[in-house]
Amino acid sequence: MPGLFVVAGRPEEIMPARDLVGCMPDEFSLHELKGCHWLSAAVCTRLTKDASFGQSEDGKIQVLFDGYLTDIVDIAVVGDWRRQPAASILDLYRRYGVSFLLNLRGAFAFLIVDQRAKKAFLASDRKGSRPSFYNQEKGCLRVATTVYSLAKHAQTCLSLDNASVVEFLLTGAFRDKYTLFDDIYRMPKASVMSVDDKGHVETRRYWRLKFEPHTTDENALVAQCNEVLEQAAQRAVDTMPDAALALSGGLDSRVVLGYLREVKGGDVPVVCFWERGTQGDDSKVAGQLADMLNLPKYTYEFDMKDFVSTADYATLSADCSVEVIDSAPLTLLWERLRGLFPAFINGDECFGWHGLVSSKQAAFSEIRWYRLSQAARVSDWINPRIKKDLAKIIDARLVDLEHECSSNRPNDLKDWLYYEERLEKMLNAFVASKLRSLEILRPLVDEDVIDFISTVPEKWRDDKKLLRVLFKKRFPELNAIPFAKRDVLPQVDGFHERLKNDPEWQKFFIDHLIEGLPQPLRDLLDVKQFNRSLFALAKGSSLPPLKHSLIERIPGMWRFRKPPENRVAPMVAMLRLLQLSIYLRYLGKV
């Protein structure tokens, strides 16, 4: 995966950073930092060496850069920051230290090594769009773009972070700074990590989202919203004018389409995709929009019959950081687009996560950051000897997240959690899985768009109310086509049917979840209870009773209890466990 790779520590113990990189696609290059005895660094990138590497005249300050800048605001810059971003970062550092980070716009990660100060700085953009992970082992810091790379090069056997495994089963992503493994952590977005020649490491955030409403006037809000969206679209077009837009039947990508057409003054190529046989109308509506505007359209139909043959590839391409196995064949689309477009534009959701909530607990539930106590079936699968302790850890982590939010209002917490957690841990992981194939632009989470949203009162963030009002006024012709009612991604009902009727699927699930289940996952589970659920789903029979329900504590009463037949949640959790099993079997070092 593209990005920065760093190893720092005692000179006799550091390995070459290039060893962390692994296989690179043909269009990527590897540029390395030279001449620093206590730090090794490399950047895997699509950029030329002139764009990704910069150094001072005496060679004492060096910069490695990956990604792109869309703007540098409120500060003078020497040189062409679009074509040579590393050189511009070098110039800014020499004049301002690292205080210029708030002035940058774009999707990037960069490393500055200052051998005069015997210090290095690794920085991430405000969105965290270039995920970085790190661990410290025996006085050595390693940073890589995937957990897999760090785990593969660990000097000792790794142990699972069991609480994070359960969180993945509940959520489909890892939370906060945690990953699948103890001692491997995610670097926060909008942060800078410093490391010196003595091995001292410090990480700090240089920006945090805070909700501070400024006005309730509708006309003023609409005008400001229009201004920042126009600017975001212009930045995207200036950065990569030939990018294609992922067009759905919903609001967000339609907003992006409207502004792209306006600032570009020409056709915007669009990509639509759907599952074969889907009942959803998402792609149909997107196709109607493209046809109405006579836009160049690329369509892709994927078939879940290819699930077994693509599950491994999907799992590894996403570094198992987010649930992708539920639509595994879709991952082939990004490879197909590689030769057609230089970049892909996402319409990320950013104007509030669904409707208003009335409590802080509801805020977590709304973004689907659940507690173990909220998922009876998953709780039933966990080894009873460790379940209570894991539940406490998960609850404590949610409390820590709540305390990080600067507002006490439940809806501010909900939208803060969406941006700080769901967007970073889930949407960014989806984006990262595509970066091997093509670059990604995301105008709806442009830095100045997010800054504006932080000033919008909650009633205007409610279910994207402000965005809907603006869109209706600004693009009435696009608003005239009804929005889609159902998405085209695979539905859980389809998994139930295939698992029940397809011997290949049954064998695949049994191979990975029973016969080949890695021992660390086996230790986490109450294996007998989990297996009963798996066989019930495979046969289409009733799920087993929850063994710790109150009624079953009465001798003999378990016979009369009708088991809950919510088959969606168990199927979803089982798919997530399947993905973890595949990942760990490939890794092999646990």
Give your account of this protein's structure:
By secondary structure, the chain is of the alpha+beta class. It has 3 domains: 3-163 and 181-205, 4-Layer Sandwich (Glutamine Phosphoribosylpyrophosphate, subunit 1, domain 1); 218-479, 3-Layer(aba) Sandwich (Rossmann fold); 492-587, no CATH class. It is 41% helix and 16% strand. It is built from 22 helices and 17 strands. It has a 6-stranded antiparallel beta sheet with strand order 2-3-1-9-8-10. It has a 6-stranded antiparallel beta sheet with strand order 4-5-6-7-11-12. It has a 5-stranded parallel beta sheet with strand order 15-14-13-16-17, covered by helices on one side. Helix 5 (218-239) packs across helix 16. The longest helix has 25 residues, at 410-434. It is globular and about 70 Å long. The two termini are 22 Å apart. The model is unreliable at 557-561 (pLDDT under 50).
